[in-house]
């Protein structure tokens, strides 16, 4: 991948994936069931998308809405799905779980990354719901494979998280801040100049790639608009 800004697009199926790649996406986040804010796709769904495009795919590991892993049984189910997806060839993932008091669920995360066996992964927007962002980052800092945080800077979205995103970008390279910030969650084109000026260089879109809503597929032209804005 070049040094240009990264554009990641949510894909639900092969049609989405092909349109996103055609429009200039660098990477896809694969999910199913956006009514539950994005859950783990099936092995069949992954293999179909992998056959349809040649850009990197990050596969969501999440079996229910919210940021809880679901206790021991939920973690067992996640491990089984992760194992199945690894066997199918998946080599990049998205995950992140919190305890009831808003702390990182290290038991769940560490069990999953043991199965991922060195694969690169994103800690998703659970960071925007944690009780202590800085503490979470420092507790996760040494986990193998973690290279990205998907975050809006605030639970309510980028509008409210701009100051946090810029402050965290300014700490890049410090302990706990080595992983790349992938901005997503209510992200709009008009946010880009301020974010780019702050040094942020990775962006994630879902609904913005679907002008006709989640019932419609990804629009290659919508993705291209974002690609051109990032390249300008």
UniProtKB/TrEMBL annotation:
Family annotation (InterPro entries): CutC-like (IPR005627), CutC-like_dom_sf (IPR036822)
SUPFAM superfamilies linked: CutC-like
One Pfam family of this chain: CutC
Family label: Belongs to the CutC family.
The protein's name in its UniProt record: Copper homeostasis protein cutC homolog
Native source species: Streptomyces zaomyceticus
């Amino acid at each position: 991948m070049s040094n240009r800004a990264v554009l990641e697009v949510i894909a639900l199926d092969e049609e989405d994936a092909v349109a996103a790649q055609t429009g200039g996406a660098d990477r896809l986040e694969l999910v199913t069931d956006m009514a539950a804010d994005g859950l783990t796709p099936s092995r069949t769904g992954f293999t179909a998308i992998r056959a349809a495009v040649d850009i990197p795919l990050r596969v969501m590991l999440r079996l229910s809405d919210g940021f809880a892993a679901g206790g021991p049984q939920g973690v067992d189910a996640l491990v089984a799905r992760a194992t199945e997806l690894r066997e199918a060839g998946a080599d990049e993932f998205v995950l992140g779980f919190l305890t009831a008091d808003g702390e990182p669920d290290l038991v769940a995360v560490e069990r999953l990354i043991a199965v991922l066996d060195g694969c690169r992964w994103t800690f998703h927007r659970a960071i925007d719901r944690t009780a202590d962002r800085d503490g979470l980052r420092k507790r996760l800092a040494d986990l193998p494979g973690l290279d990205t945080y998907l975050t809006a800077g605030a639970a309510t979205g980028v509008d409210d998280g701009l100051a946090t995103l810029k402050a965290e970008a300014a700490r890049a390279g410090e302990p706990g801040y080595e992983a790349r910030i992938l901005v997503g969650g209510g992200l709009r084109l008009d946010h880009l100049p301020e974010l780019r000026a702050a040094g942020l260089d990775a962006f994630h879109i879902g609904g913005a790639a679907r002008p006709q809503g989640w019932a419609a597929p990804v629009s290659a032209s919508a993705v291209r608009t974002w690609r051109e804005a990032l390249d300008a």
